[in-house]
Amino acid sequence: MKKTTATDRNVTRRWRTATRSVRGGAWRSEHGETSEALFLSSGYTYDSAAEVAARFAGEADGMTYSRLQNPTVAMLEERIALLEGAEACRAQASGMAAMTAALLCQLSSGDHLVAARAAFGSCRWLVDSLLPRFGIDTTVVDGTDLAAWEAAIRPNTKVFFFETPANPTLELVDLAAVCGLARQHGIISVVDNAFATSVLQRPLEFGADVVAYSATKLMDGQGRVLAGAVCGSQQFINEVLLPFQRNTGPTLSPFNAWVVLKGLETLPLRAKAQSEVALSVGKAIEPRIAAAGGRVLHPGLPSHPQFALAQRQMDACGPIFSVILPGGRSQAHAFLDALEIVDISNNIGDARSLACHPASTTHAGLSAEVREDMGVVEGMVRINIGLEDVADLVEDFDRALSAAGV
Length: 406
Description:
14% strand, alpha/beta
């Protein structure tokens, strides 16, 4: 295959986002295919025993086994790294595989992690349930409060972990402040950037050390496959993450990598367009919901308490926002049941508009007390805005709100 060389990488790093999304990390075989080739192979053959020995020893380039390298997966990793502005990337089997690997690869018994309280349900499970099983202490703080992050630091604190915007409360963490604090204390910051992707927000530019993704979401963008990614320095990816990944096997399939490669080609267009539609829908329905005693949680709306921060660290605020209806779970369910265009689904980042009730789906595994502390209240509905016509979506929400008595 014609592989990207060091010289080529210097060229690709001069490209802008849209060009990187389409052409970054593309390798071509002797056939000269325009679309990336799909390599469905678990293993590889070699011309000699000496060659394979050299590859396994790290003394020669080339594939050894698809749990470690695959040409299609490698193309995806190179493209995501380029988009992120990272030195390296390793693809993972899912978003939660990415979060788990990014944490467990660097934490040991006796270490301490500080995490933001507002998080996806499974991420909170990692912090509250999984890590303590292995003797890793964890502290959960209000991610919006810099003083709380600082107060939580101990001599054995190794990692800060947070997502911004948070799922599903849309709370923001001040990337520059929190990542800067982490660096002052020799702490690694791990940021879940799935709600924005590098098209809308680039945590590394604000001092983050590691950026993790559910590529299932906006990167694929059409609800087709599961995938994840972890980005960081060459040292972190190759010396810290890779040994964990090699021996535990959260491997992304070549087919899923190929699908995400196709999704990345349109990511800048979709992310920006969906952000615009989401903001328009949020503006349209906010007065009605506010008049009924509810709230719309969207970082792009001036009513959001961190609107100014969103303007500083995000190019646009993404396709996802939440509403809080005053009638609790029954009203939230009635609203969902009355939607005609928008599907009830717990996925996000899709080109189709979707909505779900986090308290009974994505965060159902957490106690009511934890959900309340996170701000995941019974009247909350999380909404993913797709690429449908704005007027159709507003009409659908208006009908559903009327049916739910809002």
